C-alpha cells in the first residue's frame, strides 16, 4: 500500500513539474481511436491554488496540438497487442507534436475497461489542535477502512467526497474550521492491475513519462455534465467503441463508476454479420444510415451496400433502412439494459436529480436518446464535452468527451488521497498484495 501511495504521489509531482514547464500531452487510448491533445499552460504562477474539491489547483490552458489515429491493438478498452498499440500511440503523439511545433515528454492517459469496482469508505479521527489542519485531513483519509480489493487489483482513484466536523456534515473543505472530531467519506475505484501496467509499459516504450492516469468514465463525466448535474446527482454514460463507461456524480464528486464491455464496435460487427459485408463497409453504413427507431418511410428507403468482390449481383445488393435498424436495435437495447442493471446496483434512483447524459462516439446513433429514456426511465439528454480554448472543430464532438475531460483533469485536479501527507505509522495496516513490480522496475 505504501508503494502505491508513493507512486501516485510521484506522478502528481511529475505532472506539477510538466505544468511548470508549460506543456503536457493528453492521451485517450480507446478501442476505435487514439486521440492526443497537447496543452500549453499560461505559466506556473496560476498553479498551486490550494483546495479540496473539483477545482482545486486551477490553471488556465489552451490546446495547441491535436491528432487522432485509428486505434490498433486495443480491445474492450484494454491493450491487446502491445506493438500495435505502441505504433498507434507514437503516430498520434508525433502528429500532435508536429501541429503544436513542440516536443512533449510527459503525458496523462485515460483508459476504459479494466473492470472497475467502486468502494465507499469512511473514517474518523480526533482533531489535534481544535482547528483542522492539512495533517488532520491526511490522518482521517488514512483512517478510512480500506477493504481487501483482491490480488491483481490497483487503486486508480481515491477521492474524499464528504467531510463532517462534529455534527456538521456536507463540508467540502474543513481546513481552518474549529471542531473536535473529523470524519470523511471517500470513494475508491480499483481496476485490474494488468490493464494499467500494460498501458503504462506501452507509454514507456514510446519514450514518454506518465504524469497521471485516470478512468475514462470519470473524464467523460467531468467534461459532459454541467455544474448543476454534477452537484445534484447525475450519471454519464460514455458509449465508446469497445466499452461503455458509466460514472455517477453527486456534489461534484464521482461516487460510482463501472464499465459494460460492449460498445459501438459490437453494433458494427452485428451489421457486418447480418448483411455479410466487410467491417469497414458496415461502419460506413452504420454512420450514414444507422438508427434505432424505424418509421413507415424506412421500409421504402433502400441502401446500396456496394462492394468490390467482382460478383456483379453481390455488389449491387440493396437493403431497406428498416432491416438495418432491425439489426442495430437489439444490440443497442442490450447495452442500455446492462447499463440499467449497473445503475440499479448503484442505487441511482435515490439521487435527487436522476439526470442521465449520453456521450461518446456510440451516442451519435439517431434516436438513441428516445430509446434510452424508455429503457432507463429517466430524463436523458445527449451530451457534448465543454468547449476548451484552442480545440479544433473536428475534436468538439461527443467522441472526444474523455479527451476533453482529461484536459480538465490535468488543469483542475481533484484532491485525492495521495495529495496529503499521511504519517508513516498510519498507512493502512492491511497488506494489499499489489502488482507493483512494474513501478519498481521502471520508475
Overview in brief:
The protein is of the alpha+beta class and 443 residues long. The protein has helices at 2-21, 82-100, 134-142, 193-205, 216-224, 227-232, 264-275, 279-289, 312-315, 321-345, 368-376, 401-411, 437-442, and strands at residues 23-29, 33-41, 61-70, 74-75, 78-79, 106-111, 117-126, 153-165, 168-171, 181-192, 209-215, 234-239, 244-250, 253-260, 302-304, 318-320, 355-359, 379-382. A hairpin with a 3-residue loop joins strand 1 and strand 2.
Account of the protein in words:
- The protein has 443 residues and is α+β, with helices and mostly antiparallel strands.
- It contains 13 helices and 18 strands.
- The protein has helices at 2-21, 82-100, 134-142, 193-205, 216-224, 227-232, 264-275, 279-289, 312-315, 321-345, 368-376, 401-411, 437-442; strands at 23-29, 33-41, 61-70, 74-75, 78-79, 106-111, 117-126, 153-165, 168-171, 181-192, 209-215, 234-239, 244-250, 253-260, 302-304, 318-320, 355-359, 379-382.
- A 5-stranded mixed beta sheet has the order 3-2-1-6-11, sandwiched between helices. A 5-stranded mixed beta sheet has the order 14-13-12-17-18, with helices on both faces. Strands 7-10-8-9 form a 4-stranded antiparallel beta sheet.
- Strand 17, helix 11 and strand 18 (379-382) form a beta-alpha-beta unit.
- Helix 7 packs antiparallel against helix 10 (321-345).
- The longest helix is centred in the C-terminal third of the chain and has 25 residues, at 321-345.
- The radius of gyration is 23 Å and the shape is globular.
Amino acid at each position: 500500500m505504501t508503494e502505491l501511495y508513493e507512486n501516485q504521489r510521484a506522478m502528481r509531482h511529475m505532472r506539477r513539474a510538466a505544468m511548470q514547464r508549460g506543456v503536457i500531452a493528453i492521451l485517450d487510448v480507446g478501442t476505435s481511436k487514439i486521440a492526443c491533445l497537447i496543452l500549453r499552460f499560461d505559466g506556473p504562477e496560476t498553479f498551486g491554488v490550494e483546495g479540496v474539491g473539483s477545482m482545486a489547483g486551477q490553471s488556465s490552458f489552451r490546446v495547441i496540438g491535436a491528432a487522432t489515429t485509428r486505434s490498433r491493438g486495443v480491445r474492450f478498452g484494454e491493450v491487446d497487442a502491445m506493438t500495435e498499440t505502441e505504433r498507434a500511440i507514437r503516430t498520434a503523439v508525433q502528429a500532435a507534436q508536429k501541429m503544436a511545433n513542440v516536443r512533449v515528454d510527459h503525458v496523462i492517459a485515460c483508459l476504459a475497461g479494466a473492470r472497475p469496482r467502486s468502494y465507499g469508505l469512511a473514517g474518523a479521527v480526533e482533531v489535534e489542535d481544535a482547528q483542522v489542519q492539512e495533517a488532520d485531513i491526511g490522518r482521517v483519509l488514512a483512517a478510512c477502512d480500506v477493504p481487501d480489493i483482491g490480488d491483481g487489483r490497483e487503486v486508480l482513484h481515491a477521492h474524499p467526497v464528504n467531510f463532517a466536523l462534529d455534527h456538521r456534515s456536507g463540508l467540502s473543505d474543513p481546513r481552518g474550521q474549529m471542531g473536535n472530531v473529523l470524519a470523511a467519506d471517500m470513494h475508491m475505484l480499483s481496476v485490474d492491475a494488468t490493464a494499467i501496467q500494460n498501458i503504462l509499459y506501452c507509454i514507456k516504450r514510446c519514450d514518454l513519462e506518465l504524469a497521471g492516469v485516470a478512468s475514462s468514465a470519470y473524464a467523460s463525466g467531468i467534461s459532459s455534465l454541467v455544474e448543476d448535474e454534477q452537484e445534484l446527482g447525475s450519471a454519464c454514460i460514455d458509449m465508446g467503441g469497445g466499452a461503455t463507461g458509466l460514472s455517477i456524480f453527486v456534489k461534484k464528486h464521482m461516487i460510482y463508476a463501472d464499465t459494460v464491455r460492449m460498445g459501438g464496435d459490437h453494433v458494427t460487427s452485428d451489421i457486418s454479420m447480418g448483411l455479410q459485408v466487410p467491417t469497414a463497409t458496415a461502419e460506413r453504413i452504420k454512420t450514414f444510415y444507422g438508427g434505432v427507431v424505424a418509421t413507415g418511410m424506412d421500409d421504402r428507403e433502400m441502401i446500396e451496400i456496394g462492394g468490390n468482390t467482382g460478383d456483379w449481383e453481390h455488389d449491387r445488393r440493396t437493403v431497406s433502412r428498416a432491416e438495418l435498424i432491425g439489426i442495430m436495435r437489439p444490440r443497442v437495447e442490450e447495452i442500455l439494459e446492462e447499463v440499467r442493471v449497473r445503475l440499479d446496483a448503484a442505487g441511482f434512483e435515490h439521487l435527487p436529480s436522476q439526470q442521465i447524459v449520453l456521450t461518446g462516439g456510440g451516442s451519435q446513433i439517431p434516436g438513441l436518446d428516445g430509446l434510452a429514456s424508455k429503457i432507463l426511465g429517466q430524463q436523458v439528454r445527449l451530451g457534448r464535452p465543454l468547449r476548451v480554448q484552442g480545440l479544433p472543430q473536428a475534436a468538439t464532438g461527443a467522441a472526444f468527451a474523455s479527451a476533453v475531460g482529461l484536459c480538465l483533469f490535468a488543469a483542475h485536479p481533484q484532491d485525492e488521497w495521495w495529495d496529503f501527507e499521511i504519517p508513516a505509522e498510519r498507512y493502512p495496516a492491511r497488506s494489499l498484495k499489489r502488482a507493483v513490480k512494474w513501478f519498481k522496475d521502471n520508475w
